[in-house]
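This section describes the prediction task in plain terms. A model, or a person checking by hand, is given the sequence of a single protein chain and must write out its three-dimensional structure as a string of tokens. No templates, partner chains or ligands are provided. The sample shown here is typical of the held-out split.
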Amino acid sequence: MSRQLKIIISGGGTGGHIFPAIAIARALELMRPGTEILFVGANGRMEMEKVPAAGYKIQGLDIAGISRSNMLRNLSLPMKVMNSVSKAKEIITQFKPDAIVGVGGYASGPTLWAGIRKQVPTLVQEQNSYPGVTNKILSRYVKKICVAYPGMEKYFPKEKIIVTGNPVRQDITELYSKRKEAAEYFELNGSGFTVLVIGGSLGARTINESIAASLNLFARSNIRLVWQTGKQYYAQAQELQKKYANIKVYDFISKMDYAYAVADAVVSRAGAISLSELCITGLPCILVPSPNVSEDHQTKNAMVLVSHNAAMMVKDISAISELGNAVVGLSVDSGLRESLSKNITTLAIRDSAARIANEVIKLTA
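The expected answer:
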């Protein structure tokens, strides 16, 4: 009988980090029943709520990222990092993990560094096609690096890299059978080309404004929208919904499997997890990368798909004038949709969480 494992999973800050972390935890429990998992997150961030809601214990570090809007806030950052590493060492001493997994986010760096210093086997899961500074530094010391994209030896030691993909929610893997039910859920009657618009859980101002500017065009073109606006734009979108029968607006869509199932195409930001989900769904998509992320990694993510003819891209700065026409062009070009769908599907890795969990288990042997 295999011994019970104890694993720390650290990171968070956004749903894009938290969901893969939980998926890895569940894969570990399936592969090694009885595994005890402890999460380490950043106090005040969403993981401190979402992880317990998923049924896992979590401890918090008082850590934040670099502020680009208020440089004075960064004066306290070195002390926060030192205190977080110290706290992480205490957590590791008490919990005695067999391995530590870092999924990105503020808490991941101090926790992995503390683990490295205490000689606990460590693994990094890098979601993006262009890694952040922290993971580049940690890559010299961790045992393994699980990546979503090929070609990452440009940034990491080649012998440590395993291409695993990014874990995605399992309910999006079988969509065709849900299409009728999904249409009823979103109250979409009749026929029409349906576009899912998502800008991440918080919304995306440029995408929202570009969609709003194109509503007359969409109405004339018989294009229907399922539109996740985020909270800030929701009230404005509700007013627009009164004028246009072809749009359904939501501040947040909880049934994303239904949203994907009902869609003929998707307009999205280019966060790593969003792209991994789009690869699984096989939906033709138009990406509008956010320019407001570190090292412009969303553009680099998007270009991986564009270079494989697996997605279209509209630059954020051009979206107001170009996005509406791009959506209409995609709606009338079935050949382009078929080509994009075929190519994006070839990039999908469907068992990512299990692959990562397997590598974690290997570390404990």
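For orientation: Residues 171-345 form a domain with the Rossmann fold fold (CATH 3.40.50.2000).
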